[in-house]
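Design a sequence for this backbone.
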C-alpha cells in the first residue's frame, strides 16, 4: 500500500500533487504506438491532408493514467457529409475493419474512440474539415451538437494557452490540470477542453494565480453560469460547449456545487488550519492529495 503523502504547506501540497498527475515517460511513449497505423488506414481511404496530435497531451495538461490521446484527421472537403454523424460512423466502420489491433472502437462525438487491450491510453480521432482561416490559423469543422458541425482551432488554442501560461509562470496549465484531476476523480462528464479554456480565461484576467483562491473563484463562476457555452477567449471560433447533453450538464453542475463547498471551506481554513484545509482538498482531489501538518 502506498504511503500517504505529507506536505508542510498547502502550496507545497498542490505542487507535489500536480507532479503526480503529469503523464509518465512510458505513457508518452504509449501514445505514439499506433499513430502510424491509424494514419495509414485513414490516409488510404480519405487522402488525409494532415494528421496531428491535439488535446491534453499536446497542451501539457494531461492527467496521468486518465487523459486520452487526441488526434485530428484533416479530411479533404469533398468528403464532408451533411450530417456529422455520417462521417463519424463511416470512420468507425473503416477502423473496425482495418485496425485489427484495437479491442474496441466506438463513436463519442466529436471523436471516434479506440481502445487497445493492454494499453492504458485511449485514442480519440476527430475527423476535421477546412472551414476558414483567422489570425494565421486554420479553423476546422468538427462534429457538433444535434448532428451539426462546429468550429475548432486546436493549434490556435494550444498557442493561446501556452502564451497566457508563460505570462502566469506556469499556473494556467496547473489550474487546468487541477480542474481535470477533479473531473477524473469524480467521473464528472464535463469537457476537458472547456475546463482548459476556462482556466486560460481566468489567467488572462488575473495577474496572479494562487490555487487556494483561484479554484473556488473559477468554480463559482462556472456554477453561476450554469455551465452554459462560453465565448472563445481567443476570439477565434463560435461558443465552446461544456457538456455534450443536458443530462451531463446538470450532473456536472451538481458535482461542481459539491466541490465548491469543500473548496470554499479549504480557502477559509488556509493558513489558519492547514491540516483541515488539506482534508477538504483531499475530498475534492482524492486521497493522493497530501495531508498538511
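Sequence:
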Amino acid at each position: 500500500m502506498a504511503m500517504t503523502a505529507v506536505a508542510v504547506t498547502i502550496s507545497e501540497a498542490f505542487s507535489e500533487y500536480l507532479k503526480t498527475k503529469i503523464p509518465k515517460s512510458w505513457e508518452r511513449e504509449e501514445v505514439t504506438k499506433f499513430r502510424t497505423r491509424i494514419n495509414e488506414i485513414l490516409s488510404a481511404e480519405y487522402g488525409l491532408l494532415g494528421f496531428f496530435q491535439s488535446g491534453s497531451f499536446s497542451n501539457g495538461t494531461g492527467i496521468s493514467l486518465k487523459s486520452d490521446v487526441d488526434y485530428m484527421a484533416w479530411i479533404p472537403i469533398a468528403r464532408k457529409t451533411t450530417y456529422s454523424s455520417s462521417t463519424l460512423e463511416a470512420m468507425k466502420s473503416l477502423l473496425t475493419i482495418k485496425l485489427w489491433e484495437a479491442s474496441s472502437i466506438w463513436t463519442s462525438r466529436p471523436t471516434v474512440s479506440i481502445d487497445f487491450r493492454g494499453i492504458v491510453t485511449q485514442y480519440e480521432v476527430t475527423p476535421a474539415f477546412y472551414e476558414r482561416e483567422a489570425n494565421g490559423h486554420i479553423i476546422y469543422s468538427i462534429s457538433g451538437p444535434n448532428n451539426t458541425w462546429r468550429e475548432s482551432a486546436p493549434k490556435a488554442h494550444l498557442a493561446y494557452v501556452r502564451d497566457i501560461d508563460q505570462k502566469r509562470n506556469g499556473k494556467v496549465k496547473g489550474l487546468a490540470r487541477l480542474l481535470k484531476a477533479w473531473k477524473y476523480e469524480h467521473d464528472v462528464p464535463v469537457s476537458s477542453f472547456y475546463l482548459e479554456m476556462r482556466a486560460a480565461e481566468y489567467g488572462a484576467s488575473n495577474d496572479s494565480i494562487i490555487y487556494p483562491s483561484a479554484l473556488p473563484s473559477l468554480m463559482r463562476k462556472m456554477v453561476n453560469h450554469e455551465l452554459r457555452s462560453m465565448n472563445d477567449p481567443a476570439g477565434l471560433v463560435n461558443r465552446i460547449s461544456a457538456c455534450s447533453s443536458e443530462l451531463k450538464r446538470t450532473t456536472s453542475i451538481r458535482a461542481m456545487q459539491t466541490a465548491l463547498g469543500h473548496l470554499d471551506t479549504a480557502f477559509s481554513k488556509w493558513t489558519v488550519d492547514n491540516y483541515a484545509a488539506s482534508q477538504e482538498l483531499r475530498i475534492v482531489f482524492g486521497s493522493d492529495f497530501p495531508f498538511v501538518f
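The mean pLDDT is 92.
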